[in-house]
Write a structure and sequence with these properties.
Elements (H helix, E strand, L loop, with lengths): L1 H23 L11 H4 L2 H8 L12 E2 L15 E2 L34 E6 L5 E4 H5 L4 E8 L12 H5 L2 E10 H8 L7 E6 L6 E5 H4 L4 E6 L2 E2 L9 E3 L12 E7 L16 H4 L8 E6 L10 E10 L5 E7 L7 E2 L1 E2 L9 E9 L4 E9 L8 H8 L18 E3 L5 E3 L3
C-alpha cells in the first residue's frame, strides 16, 4: 500500500515538474520530436505550409516536342504529364498537362473580383460572384482532359511524349445545367458560347444538349482550389470533349441559336463529315505505361503490365493486351473504378521469356466502340498501311517493342 502511494506521489510530482518545464521551455523534446523553433525553421515551414514530396521522387512535366519552347513570349505553356510514373488514375495537380494559354501570360485573378455571367437567349441574365457560386449545390466528379494534339509519332521516345497531353482529376463545382435552368433557356436556343478571361478572349461553341447534360463549372481540383495553370478561379469541364473546349478562367456563357465561329473553334472544324465525326469527342483510347518506351527490363521473369484507358463515349468496359504484336489478345484486369469519361487503370500478369516482344493494348467503351489499329485507320481512309494518316483525334493502338536485352522502344519507329 505504502509503495503504491509513494509511486503515486512520485508520479504527481513528476507531472507537476513536466508541466512547469513545458511552461518555462525547460524540457527537451522527446526522442524523434522537434522543438517549436525547429518546427518553424524555413525548411520545415515549407513542409508544414503546403508539403513537399520526397527528394527521391523526380517525376516532372516536359515541353511538347512539336511546340517551340520557350515560345515567342519566352514562356513554356505546352507541357506533358509523366504518365510513365503515374500511380492510379488521378494526376497530381502539379503534374497535370498544360496545352495552351491565349496570350502572353497566365492570368492572375482575384477571386473576390471575378464574375461569371450567364446571358443571351435566357429569360433572366445572371451574374455570379465566386461566393455565390459556392453557395449553390455542387458535385464532385472524376474526368479526364485531353488535347487534340495528343498524337503519337515515330520520333517520340517515351509514353510522356506520345500520350502526355492527357491527365485525369477529381473536379468539384456547380453543374452548368443548374445555372442555365436558373437563367431560363429560351425556345429556339441550341448552342452556347463559353469564354474565358485570358489576354486573348478565346471562346468555344458547344451544343446546348451537352451543356445541359454533364458540363461542370469547376472551382475545385483534387481537393483544393484550381491551380492558376488550370484556370483559377473557375473552369468549364466538358467531359469527353477535346481539351480546347474546357474553358479556363471562365467568365461568361452565352446561350445562342447557332454555331459561332470562335477563336478556339477556328482550325478545329472540318468540312469532311467523316473527319468531323472523329473530332470533338475523344474516342476510346488506351496506352501501356509500363513497360513503355525508354524503360528497361532487367531480365526475363514476371512483370505486371500496367496502363490507362479512357473514352469520351462513356465508361471503359474492357481492356485487352497483346504481347505478340496483336496476333493474340488477353483480357486485362481493371484495377480502378471505371468512371464515365475518366482514366481507368488496367493491369495484366506477364511472364517474359527474354525474347523480342511487341506489347499493345486496346479498349472497348460502354458504347461498344473498340480502339482501332493504325492499319484499320489506313483502310478506313484508303491510305497505304505504311503511310496511315490519322484524321480527327488520334486514338490508335500504341505498340512498344521489347528487345532481347530488355530495352523498350516506340513500336511506331
Amino acid at each position: 500500500m505504502g509503495s503504491r502511494l509513494r509511486n503515486g506521489r512520485g508520479f504527481l510530482k513528476n507531472s507537476v515538474a513536466l508541466a512547469s518545464g513545458l511552461t518555462m521551455g525547460a524540457v527537451k523534446p522527446a526522442l524523434g520530436q522537434s522543438s517549436m523553433a525547429e518546427a518553424m525553421s524555413p525548411k520545415n515551414k515549407e513542409l508544414i505550409a503546403y508539403g513537399d514530396r520526397s527528394k527521391y521522387v523526380t517525376s516532372k512535366r516536359i515541353p511538347v516536342m512539336e511546340r517551340m519552347s520557350p515560345d515567342m513570349y519566352g514562356l513554356t505553356f505546352h507541357v506533358t504529364t509523366p504518365l510513365q510514373d503515374q500511380l492510379g488514375i488521378i494526376t497530381p495537380s502539379s503534374l497535370f498537362y498544360v496545352a495552351t494559354h491565349r496570350g502572353s501570360y497566365v492570368p492572375e485573378i482575384n477571386p473576390a473580383e471575378h464574375r461569371l455571367m450567364i446571358h443571351g437567349m435566357v429569360e433572366r441574365p445572371l451574374v455570379f460572384t465566386m461566393d455565390e457560386l459556392k453557395r449553390l449545390p455542387y458535385v464532385t466528379r472524376v474526368y479526364f482532359v485531353e488535347c487534340a494534339g495528343n498524337r503519337a509519332q515515330a520520333r517520340h521516345k517515351t509514353v510522356q511524349e506520345t500520350h502526355g497531353l492527357t491527365s485525369c482529376a477529381e473536379w468539384t463545382g456547380v453543374p452548368l445545367s443548374l445555372l442555365l435552368k436558373e437563367a431560363g433557356v429560351q425556345n429556339g436556343a441550341s448552342w452556347i458560347v463559353a469564354e474565358g478571361a485570358e489576354e486573348v478572349k478565346g471562346g468555344s461553341s458547344l451544343p446546348l444538349a451537352k451543356a445541359l447534360d454533364d458540363c461542370l463549372v469547376a472551382y475545385g481540383m483534387n481537393g483544393e482550389a484550381l491551380r492558376p495553370q488550370q484556370g483559377f478561379p473557375l473552369r468549364l469541364i466538358v467531359p469527353g470533349f477535346e481539351g480546347i473546349h474546357q474553358i479556363k478562367y471562365l467568365r461568361r456563357v452565352k446561350v445562342v441559336d447557332r454555331y459561332y465561329m470562335t477563336y478556339d473553334d477556328y482550325g478545329h472544324i472540318n468540312a469532311d463529315p467523316k473527319a468531323a465525326a472523329l473530332a470533338l469527342q475523344i474516342g476510346p483510347k488506351s496506352v501501356i505505361t509500363f513497360p513503355s518506351a525508354g524503360q528497361q527490363l532487367p531480365g526475363p521473369g514476371f512483370y505486371e503490365i500496367s496502363g490507362l484507358a479512357w473514352s469520351g463515349g462513356g465508361a471503359i468496359r474492357k481492356v485487352e493486351v497483346s504481347t505478340n504484336g496483336g496476333q493474340t489478345w488477353q483480357d486485362a484486369e481493371l484495377r480502378s473504378p471505371a468512371y464515365p469519361m475518366a482514366h481507368t487503370r488496367f493491369g495484366l500478369h506477364w511472364k517474359w521469356d527474354g525474347k523480342e516482344s511487341v506489347l499493345m493494348s486496346r479498349c472497348t467503351d460502354e458504347l461498344g466502340t473498340v480502339q482501332p489499329t493504325r492499319a484499320e485507320v489506313a483502310k478506313f481512309w484508303g491510305d497505304p498501311p505504311e503511310r496511315a494518316r490519322v484524321r480527327g483525334n488520334d486514338n490508335t493502338i500504341q505498340p512498344w517493342k521489347i528487345a532481347g536485352d530488355g530495352s523498350v522502344t516506340n513500336g511506331l519507329s
